[in-house]
Amino acid sequence: MCVARVHVRSTESLKVTGSHHLELSGSRVKPKAALWGVITFLWLFMLNAQAPSRAQLRRQLRQARNNLSPLEQKKAAQQLARTLSHTPLFRKSRHIAVYVASDGEIDPKALVVEAQKRKKTLYVPVLAKWPKTHMYFQPINTKTRWGKNRYGIREPLRNLRAARKPWALSLIMLPLVGFDNAGGRLGMGGGFYDRKLSYLHTRAYWQSPMLIGLAHECQKVESLNQADWDIPLAGCATDARFYPSAR
Length: 247
Hints:
This protein is α/β, with parallel strands linked by helices. The protein has helices at 34-50, 54-66, 70-85, 88-92, 109-117, 192-196; strands at 14-17, 21-24, 27-28, 95-97, 121-127, 135-140, 146-148, 154-156, 171-175, 178-179, 185-186, 210-214, 235-237, 242-244. The protein has two domains: 14-50, no CATH class; 54-244, Rossmann fold (3-Layer(aba) Sandwich). It is built from six helices and 14 strands. The strands form four sheets. Strands 6-5-4-9-12-13-14 form a seven-stranded mixed β-sheet. A three-stranded antiparallel β-sheet has the order 1-2-3, with helices on one face. Strands 7-8 form a two-stranded antiparallel sheet. A hairpin with a 2-residue loop joins β2 (21-24) and β3 (27-28). The chain starts with 13 loop residues before the first strand and ends with a strand.
């Protein structure tokens, strides 16, 4: 069973001024209530201190998905395909980027099979040679020759002439470590997708391709603090359901 007990909390802004007054979000509290205000401040501070950092959260969620048995992983992958293959977004997309699962990630293989039945063109990420940090989307088919990247993950033998620009893709299905309802995504920390898709920050209307995260249900958290460079998702699909972004 995939279980991750993760609580991400946020605290209200508190400010202590002088020796007699405590201000909460700009409002003044009477001196008699100052002691209770300080106690509240300390309590909220302790709650915030207990909230996991991104690194801690990443470890917890990776452990949760790696605890799944091979049979549970297989069932989750099959259910994911049933969940996503019936959505209008998947049906309409012609050029779809997927990934090769590793480290307990939910496997999109069943989705790949379904996409091939529907004559869609599939792509997977290929990393540039070390120490470069570029990533490309290269087409795959039954004749594709495979190797391994710097992380030991299978990828097609590099052929940059065949690579497709990200804005020419209909849909990118991304792996992730954690996600929330607001489109927040916690990745492995390499930043490859964020760098490749950074152009989306400057696009107010034409947001292509659509970005959908794939995950086990236990990788969902209440809230994720996003950095300025993080690219939000349009939604996330799990073995339980599809979550459209609430942002």
